[in-house]
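Students often ask why inverse folding is considered easier than folding. One informal answer: many sequences map to the same fold, so there is more than one right answer. In these notes we will look at a single instance of the problem. The structure comes first.
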């Protein structure tokens, strides 16, 4: 009977112990796959077979175990049974050191623990701890700490068994374990230097130092249907106002509802009718590509009937919906006047739907002209429009939130740990309604009794903590900082998740992102050029300035020489032959310090922001989200408050006059002619200091009732105002009540 032949059915992964090393460990990364031939009751580790000194692969791949014949394996087991391991002192040591005059023998697992070198190439040589090959370094090369370019953890620049250096890059250091995992995943076709992509020299050195590189395709190439989505065409209408009644995903080939994809990126689409296209042969570009081409000077904007374009001073273009036919246009000379009418006036008898009142019931109000310049007014109007656009988008995302509640117990004395524990608890779901319960809170009475006010306060504290945490660096406009402990604890992902949940659940927006960080999230880090202002480290900024403002080649070389270690660690050390090369050097340093070294935290942060689809909406509407993520919340204005509160109208004739008083009062408060502020009015009515990104739920309303003093119902966000005969009475009652109420709450 031929002992070498065996079918696949004879193999069983579950097995007792390896006949060569005597161990039961099943760790493919350390010892190779462990397989059993049930017929002959033989179990071996793959690496134990490869490294055994007295056996060769004489069979085909389907013979014996891994091509090693059963008879050969038994002979090797008998040979090794006579040899004692120099490490564990037990018999069965099948591996010997190939160095001349060295008689040491050992088991494979023992050799791994003793830091022996096993070369998975050519004759599969093994070297004991005394004769193993080592990497050589120049004597003048400075020692210190660096960063493993795979795990991004700290690695000491000392030639040890656990630390390896790239042969092709001067400042590329790796953990041996990281390299081995990378090699097993990438295979021989994709395993290369992570810094310079060198393959030949890098693989040769790693094989010499005992890294096993399997001859197989990369693991990501072997996944079933891994790239299935690449075979699917994008079928979604992304224009701001889709006209198709059957939805944005409806596609009717050869008809007006056929979806046309962007001719440049192919990742955005539109119905032909939604963009006034008469034929599918016409080219169409999405707004992202238009902006990129417009900035490069290769695109000329065309006017369309269905969509109006509004060009800002920075050269960007945003789509604005044309006004509804039911909404009258304002004349150019009436910027300061507006109609208090539908959809702002809602009949009290039908609060669920917006119905139009007859012309006799419409009240025309006017605000006095603002004192700022026209450019400032247009800028504020643009930012207000962008923020309202963000509220609308986030309201759509809020439809994912269901009525099921998740309770977070927040200890105010240990705020961050309790918040992190709440977000990581097993039953936490971003789509559940979040209920906050504060403990050890000294001023709990100030938070209000409603769940909404507690939730707003929690998210406000959370955003404030993140802004001042070690995850971010910078003064006002912040970038991600590199915190190794935070990377290990996956805190960057949690921070992104918290921000996404805060935005959708009506919390305070961050408002502290730098433009560089925002662009990295939207366009990808490889497409962003950081500025000197993004460098938070004073020493690094000073060195960059010295290089940037060097006025001669000799001073530039002297500066580079003084910054030798810094430039070497950044991978930017290079010979300079001309003064003009300093600009490229500065750009490379900035890119490394601001972006490249935080690639891993940035990717984790992006994954967190994908929660509830927030990042996807950010990438679709970057200009809209920039106003709430990169800019501080602006001071409230009279128009903002007036637009925020819906006026509930009844048939009472005196309401028109009181509505006029309300508008005039807002204008007086805005001009500083009152003892209260617009923020006080908002707090009095809603309990909030600012307007959240998704607005208020329920929407703020104003009612005019025959009462003596104004009342603020924070649970319904309702402001009940008294009907008075004169404006002075109205103003005095508002000032007295709001000021007195807020003072009592504060006390």
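Output (designed amino acids):
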């Amino acid at each position: 009977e031929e002992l070498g032949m065996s079918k696949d059915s004879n193999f069983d992964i579950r097995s007792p112990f390896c006949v060569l090393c005597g161990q039961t460990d099943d760790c493919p990364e350390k010892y190779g796959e462990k397989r059993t031939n049930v017929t002959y009751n033989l179990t071996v580790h793959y690496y134990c077979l490869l490294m055994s000194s007295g056996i060769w692969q004489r069979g085909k791949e389907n013979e014996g175990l891994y091509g090693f014949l059963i008879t050969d394996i038994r002979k090797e087991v008998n040979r090794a049974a006579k040899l004692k391991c120099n490490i564990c002192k037990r018999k069965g040591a099948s591996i010997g050191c190939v160095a001349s005059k060295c008689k040491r023998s050992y088991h494979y697992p023992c050799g791994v623990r003793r830091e022996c070198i096993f070369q998975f190439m050519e004759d599969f040589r093994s070297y004991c701890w005394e004769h193993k090959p080592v990497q050589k370094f120049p004597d003048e090369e400075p020692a210190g700490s660096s960063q493993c370019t795979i795990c991004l953890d700290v690695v000491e620049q000392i030639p040890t068994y656990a630390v390896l250096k790239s042969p092709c890059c001067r400042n590329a250091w790796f953990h041996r374990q990281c390299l081995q995992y990378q090699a097993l995943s990438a295979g021989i076709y994709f395993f290369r230097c992570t810094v310079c992509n060198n393959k030949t020299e890098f693989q040769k050195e790693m094989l010499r130092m005992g890294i096993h590189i399997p001859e197989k395709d990369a693991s990501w190439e072997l996944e079933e249907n891994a790239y299935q989505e690449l075979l699917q065409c994008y079928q979604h209408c992304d224009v701001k106002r889709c006209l198709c009644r059957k939805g944005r995903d409806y596609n009717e080939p050869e008809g007006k509802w056929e979806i046309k994809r962007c001719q440049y990126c192919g990742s955005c689409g539109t119905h032909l009718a939604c963009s006034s296209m008469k034929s599918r042969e016409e080219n169409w570009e999405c707004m992202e590509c238009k902006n990129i081409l417009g900035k490069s000077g290769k695109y000329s904007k065309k006017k369309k009937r269905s969509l109006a374009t509004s060009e800002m001073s920075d050269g960007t273009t945003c789509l604005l919906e044309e006004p509804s036919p039911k909404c009258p246009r304002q004349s150019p000379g009436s910027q300061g006047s507006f109609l208090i009418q539908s959809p702002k006036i809602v009949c009290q008898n039908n609060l669920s739907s917006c119905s139009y009142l007859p012309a006799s019931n419409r009240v025309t109000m006017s605000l006095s002209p603002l004192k700022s310049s026209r450019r400032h007014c247009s800028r504020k109007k643009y930012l207000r429009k962008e923020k309202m656009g963000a509220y609308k988008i986030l309201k759509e995302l809020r439809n994912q939130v269901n009525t099921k509640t998740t309770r977070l117990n927040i200890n105010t004395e240990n705020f961050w740990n309790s918040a992190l524990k709440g977000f990581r608890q097993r039953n936490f779901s971003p789509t559940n309604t979040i209920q906050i319960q504060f403990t050890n809170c000294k001023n709990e009475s100030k938070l209000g009794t409603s769940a909404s006010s507690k939730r707003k306060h929690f998210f406000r504290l959370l955003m404030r903590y993140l802004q001042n945490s070690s995850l971010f660096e910078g003064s006002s406009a912040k970038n991600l900082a590199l915190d190794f402990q935070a990377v290990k604890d996956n805190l960057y992902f949690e921070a992104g998740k918290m921000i996404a949940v805060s935005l959708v659940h009506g919390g305070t927006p961050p408002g502290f992102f730098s433009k560089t960080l925002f662009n990295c999230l939207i366009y990808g880090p490889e497409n962003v050029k950081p500025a000197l202002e993004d460098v938070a480290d004073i020493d690094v900024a000073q060195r960059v300035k010295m290089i940037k403002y060097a006025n001669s080649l000799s001073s530039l070389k002297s500066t580079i020489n003084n910054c030798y270690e810094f430039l070497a660690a950044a991978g930017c050390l290079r010979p300079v032959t001309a003064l003009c090369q300093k600009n490229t050097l500065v750009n490379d340093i900035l890119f490394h310090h601001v972006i490249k070294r935080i690639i891993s935290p940035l990717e984790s942060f992006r994954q967190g922001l994908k929660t509830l689809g927030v990042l996807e909406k950010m990438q679709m509407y970057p200009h809209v989200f920039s106003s709430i993520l990169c800019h501080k919340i602006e001071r409230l204005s009279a128009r903002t408050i007036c637009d925020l509160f819906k006026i509930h109208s009844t048939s009472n004739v005196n309401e028109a006059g009181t509505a006029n008083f309300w508008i005039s009062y807002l204008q007086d408060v805005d001009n500083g002619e009152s003892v209260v502020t617009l923020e006080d009015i908002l707090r009095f009515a809603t309990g909030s200091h600012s307007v959240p990104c998704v607005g208020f739920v329920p929407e703020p309303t104003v009612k005019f009732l025959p009462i003596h003093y104004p009342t603020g119902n924070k649970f319904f966000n309702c402001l009940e105002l008294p009907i008075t005969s004169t404006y002075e009475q109205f103003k005095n009652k508002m000032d007295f009540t709001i000021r007195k109420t807020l003072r009592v709450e504060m006390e």
